[in-house]
Specification:
Large ribosomal subunit protein bL35, 3-stranded antiparallel sheet, single chain, Factor Xa Inhibitor, Ribosomal_bL35-like
């Protein structure tokens, strides 16, 4: 059987934790930060974990993760 290719766009955006969760960065942190609340900017600095339904889609894109 041939190997399955990994979606490179997903590999650059997501990582798997040791327990199998999918870790990602928050969105809305790139530009126009002056119009966003300070609390949102602070909380979006840290990573987040994807919901189970979204994580299942990422697992399909990254078969060897």
């Amino acid at each position: 059987m041939p190997k399955i290719k990994t979606k490179r766009s997903a590999a650059k955006r997501f990582t798997f934790t040791g327990t199998g969760k999918v870790k990602a960065r928050h969105s809305t942190q790139r530009h126009m930060l002056s119009s966003k609340p300070k609390a949102a900017k602070r909380l979006h600095r840290k990573a987040t974990y994807l919901a189970p339904g979204d994580a299942a889609l990422v697992r399909l894109m990254m078969p060897y993760g």
